Amino acid sequence: MTEHVPVMAGEATDSLKLRPDGTYLDGTCGLGGHGVLIASKLDGGRLIAIDRDESAIERARDVLGRFGSAVTFVHGNFGNLAQILDGLGVDTVDGMLFDLGVSSMQLDSPERGFGYMAGGPADMRMDRSAGYSARNVINETPEAELREILREYGEERYAGRIARAIVRRRLEKPIESTGELAGIIRGAMPPEGLRERQNPLRRSFMAIRIAVNDELGELGRMLEAAPDRLSAGGRICVITFHSLEDRMVKEAFLSRERGCVCPKDFPVCVCGFKQTLRVVTRKPTIPREAEIEANPRARSAKLRVAEKV
Ligand SMILES: C[S@@+](CC[C@H](N)C(=O)[O-])C[C@H]1O[C@@H](n2cnc3c(N)ncnc32)[C@H](O)[C@@H]1O
Ligand SMILES: [Zn+2]
Asked: 9-105+216-308 and 131-212 share one CATH topology?
């Protein structure tokens, strides 16, 4: 069951400390759930709504249409945040929100190939104009690399067996559909793996999706660029669903809070790093139990917030 309700909506929008006349960026506008909450608090302000999925932008256009020219839509990748803002002639914004991962629309559309329940082509591209899909990952990646993808991004215990089974099958003929992929993964797992509480396909599908979309790479590029594009006092809020992502966000925030990394006995700073952020959430905020009950996808969500100094 997936939901259209935005995850940690209240927590995230409160953390942004919205000013009615401010300029805000929603880097993952998706179905516009968070976007509506932001835009409805604006009066004279602006929302820049980005998504790398063209069909999400189409949906968001419907949902956010009533806010007229207060909302600017961009089909783009938040990894290119600086270029996107340059293109709009915007120097800094007063807040940024990123709600990572896939939307329910993507998961529930069989033709997109994200869902292990839905069936469809092995695609999983968030941006359908991109040239690299799940077909490429599963049919072309060397076995050792495939194993690492499954192990690292999916924390899949049976990564070795699954990678081997994928490679064996593709020698016969290319793997084209999520149904075939699901069958291969199931067939490679020992009975105890299939008996786990979570769907045994979940981890592998997530890992392949992360690889197809270079999700960690894009997150890294965004975290690198974002602090420079925030105005003083502006906040960056990131909701993650994966421990690797959460760690990246935590470390990026901390290193920008720490600033100078020179040894204490250096008379002057030679590293040149200056503090640019202050961490607002020492520990990540997690959804309340009631939200998790209503929306199971929220279970693994973590919100981290930092403020530009
Ligand atoms: C969890 S959904 C966001 C849902 C949205 N907050 C809402 O309330 O409707 C994540 C969205 O982020 C988009 N996305 C993921 N990585 C992206 C990236 N690097 N750049 C831009 N959009 C991205 C996906 O296409 C997807 O639509
Ligand atoms: Zn220094």
From this structure: no
Mean pLDDT of 96-116: 94
- Distance between Cα 172 and ligand 1 center (Å): 36
Residue nearest to atom 4 of ligand 1 (CA): 30
pLDDT value at 117 more than 90: no
**Mean pLDDT over all residues of the chain?**
95
Cβ distance 39 to 71 under 8 Å?
Answer: yes
- CATH ID of 9-105+216-308, from 3.40.50.1000, 3.30.470.10, 1.25.40.10, 3.40.50.150: 3.40.50.150
Burial of 137 (0-12, 13-18, 19+ CB in 10 A): buried
**Ligand 1 centre and the CA of 263: distance in Å?**
40
Asked if 93 and 230 touch (Cβ cutoff 8 Å), the reply is yes
The number of beta carbons lying within 10 Å of the beta carbon of residue 209 is: 24
Ligand nearest, relative to CA of residue 266: 2
